[in-house]
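Curious: can you check?
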Amino acid sequence: MKRSSQDSGSRSIPEDRKLYVVDSINDLNKLNLCPAGSQQLFPLEEKLQDISTDSGNGSHSLFLVGLIIVLIISLALVSFVIFLIVQTENKMEDVSRRLAAEGKDIDDLKKINSIIVKRLNQLDSEQS
């Protein structure tokens, strides 16, 4: 029995508070302490909530703008890195071509050197 009375009592407390607030507003209206626009107390609270939600939307839009800026910067950096990779590849191809050409020149010089050495050896053998 005590539990049921406590349960019903705990449920009635918020209703009592609501009634107290409404009675207080009505008493103020009766005493003319509040102007006729006092009925807009609750819409003001709603406006305050709307303002706080708008500031939340502002932070969301600010976050989105920041995210877009970060994505654009990352895209620029990635494209710059790709450009550097392509440039490095082109320079490596140039260097490998030069090395191949110089390698052929060195081989030609070795052949000429060996021909000269043979000819000198022949001339030495004829003189002796």
